[in-house]
Amino acid sequence: MLAYIIRRVAQSILVLLVVGLVAFSMFRFVGDPIDNMLGQERTQADIDRLRIELGLDQPFVVQYYKFLGGAVQGNFGVSYRQGRPVSLIIKERAPATLELAAVSGFLAISIGIALGVFTAIRRDGWTSNVIMSVSLIGVSLPTFLIGILLIYLFSVELDWLPSFGRGEVVDLGWWTTGFLTASGLKALILPSITLGLYQMTLIMRLVRSEMLEVLRQDYIRFARARGLKERSVNFRHALKNTLVPVITVTGLQLGAIIAFAIITETVFQWPGVGLLFINAIQFVDIPVMAAYLMLISVMFVGINLIVDLLYFWVDPRLRADRAGGH
Amino acid sequence: MADVDIIEAAKVAELGRWARFRESDFYWKFRRSPVAMVSFAVTMVLVLSAFFAPLIAPHNPFDPASLNLMNGFSAPGVPNAFTGDEFFLGTDDQGRDVFSTILYGMRISLFVGIAAVSFALILGVTLGLIAGYVGGWTEAIIMRVADVQLTFPSILVAMLIFGVAKGVTPVEYRDQMAIWVLIVAIGLSDWVQFARVVRGATLVERNKEYVQAARLIGRTPPAIMMRHILPNVLSPVLVIATISLALAIIAEATLSFLGVGAPPTQPSLGTLIRIGQGFLFSGEWWILLFPAATLLSLALAVNLLGDWLRDALNPRLK
Question: Which pTM was predicted?
Answer without folding.
Answer: 0.80
